[in-house]
Write a structure and sequence with these properties.
- By secondary structure, this protein is mainly alpha-helical.
- It contains 20 helices and two strands.
- Helix 5 packs antiparallel against helix 12.
- The termini are far apart.
- 51% of the residues are buried.
């Protein structure tokens, strides 16, 4: 009941004319930027993060929630109309969505994506209300060794479990950890990796890193591979769904939500796995198997619901423990830190009004997005006609303005370009970006918890291992790291003996 009362107080804070206007502005900007090709939710949030500077924290996070959900909504439009997913979690939506659009059913594809996102987002946000407080109570019981183990699990999860190549994943993580250590050591007071440059003594701001790697790196990559021929945009009518479309969509919406939320809340989760699982499930359960691969509406409804439910799920570990499970959550964590607010177990006690207002604004933003997206889908589609050179020139301009606004130092612009070149190089050699962002955000915090654990144990290494929680996590890490070896030698040996028999 206390949680319900806190949520009602959050709605009371959101449902004022000024805050509703800010929420509407956030979802509009988030959707408009998220619709543009090649720009996923993480890049949208990173690019628009400076927009919230100068606002009080409550209003800033109301706008931020709108930008977050708006970026998720916008990605489906690009996937369906251009077959250009903004990020990997939108790939599955593009498989059937673009086929539907080419078959003259773009309106129905956009409608089921928008309504499915609303249904999944609403249910997942309600689950967020129910799940997060118990997780906070559990997190309060954890000590420094347990938090260190959790962060190490996050490092392994985003590199060894989700990536296509473990070597590239760990290389990206190492780059992020190196960037995170730049600055003055909080314990010894010594400068680390500053190269004698005074501006680096305070470290590199996470916002500059995120905007440089995502926005500038993407712009340079597109410029290097730019095709002069403009992309063909499929015309869109007013999104609508017939009775048959509704009948075929509502079950995939619910099943996609059931897949997406738990995976989003897991440290090794993310949206890629549940979207593929949702697609595979709908393909198996459908009564119209002949339509899959040619534009089945279930193949859009389920994965898009899973994608948005996963987005809400990522907020559970971020708010309760302070662990980001994807790039978007990592950028949101940077936004909290920008205001001097540290997500974690004490967040609900110290910033209770802010947290519940943020959660309430997710419900409001979700409803505003549905009202906004259904009638304005043709307008969003027209944004896709912007020539790529103008589009990415604008992105570079706003990225530079945002980076400069962080500290008002010209040196940050040099850093932005350097990080953009790093992002370009990572795309060139296939290094994933998420491990780098997680390394920058969690690296200093992992170092802090590790040092704290060693101080409590008097410098003994056994102090890094706490109770049953850390033992369980380290066992999980060991299995995740050694699984390829076990699968190759143990399972391979078993198969070999069976074959010889």
């Amino acid at each position: 009941m206390d949680n319900l009362g806190n949520l009602l107080d959050g709605f009371a804070n959101v449902l004022t004319p000024m805050n509703l206007l800010i929420a509407l502005l956030g979802v509009t900007i988030g959707t408009a930027v998220g619709v543009l090709p090649g720009i996923g939710p993480a890049m949208t949030v990173a690019l628009l993060l400076p927009v919230t500077y100068g606002m009080e924290p409550t209003q800033a996070f109301i706008m931020f929630a709108g930008i977050f959900y708006g970026g998720m909504y916008g990605g489906s439009t690009t996937s369906i109309l251009l077959n250009t997913p903004g990020e990997s979690s939108s790939v599955v939506t593009a498989i059937e969505g673009n086929k539907m659009a080419k078959a003259g059913r773009a309106a129905q594809a956009l409608a089921t994506a928008a309504i499915g996102s609303f249904v999944a987002g609403t249910i997942a946000t309600l689950l967020l209300v129910l799940v997060t407080p118990p997780m906070v109570k559990f997190a309060i019981s954890l000590g420094a060794p347990d938090y260190l183990a959790l962060m190490l699990l996050s490092f392994v999860a985003v590199t060894a479990v989700l990536g296509a190549s473990r070597v590239r994943g760990f290389a990206s993580l190492l780059l992020g950890l190196v960037i995170g250590t730049i600055g003055i050591d909080a314990v010894s007071g010594q400068q680390r990796l500053t190269l004698g440059i005074p501006q680096l003594a305070d470290g590199i701001d996470v916002v500059v890193v995120a905007v440089g790697i995502f926005a500038v790196g993407e712009a340079l990559w597109i410029a290097a591979h730019l095709r002069r021929r403009t992309s063909e945009v499929i015309p869109v009518g007013r999104p609508w769904m017939g009775r048959q479309d509704w009948r075929r969509s509502w079950k995939p919406w619910l099943r996609g939500t059931a897949y997406g939320f738990p995976f989003g809340a897991l440290p090794a989760g993310g949206a890629e796995i549940p979207t593929f699982l949702s697609y595979a499930t709908e393909k198996k359960l459908t009564k119209h198997p002949e339509e899959f691969g040619r534009g089945a509406i279930e193949g859009v409804a389920g994965p898009e619901a899973a994608n948005n439910a996963s987005a809400a799920g990522t907020l559970v570990p971020m708010l309760a423990i302070g662990l980001p499970t994807n790039a978007t959550a990592a950028v949101m964590l940077a936004a909290f830190q920008q205001y001097g607010i540290q997500p974690g177990p004490l967040l609900f006690e110290r910033e209770s009004a802010l947290v519940w207002t943020l959660i309430a604004s997710l419900f409001v933003g979700n409803l505003l997005l549905l009202v906004l997206n259904l009638p304005l889908a043709p307008a969003w589609a027209r944004l896709l006609r912007i020539p790529r050179p103008y589009l990415y020139a604008g992105i570079l301009f706003f990225a530079s303005m945002g980076a400069y606004a962080v500290n008002a130092q010209p040196f940050d612009l040099f850093l932005l370009l350097t990080l953009g070149l790093l992002g370009f190089g990572m795309r060139r050699f296939g290094l994933p970006i998420l491990p780098l962002i997680v390394g920058v955000v969690l690296g200093p915090r992992a170092e802090l918890q590790g040092r704290r654990a060693l101080q409590l144990s008097g410098g003994e290494l056994h102090g890094l291992i706490g109770g049953w929680v850390s033992w369980t996590i380290y066992a999980t890490i060991l299995v995740a790291v050694l699984w390829p070896v076990l699968r190759r030698f143990v399972l391979g040996g078993v198969r070999g003996r069976l074959v010889t028999r």
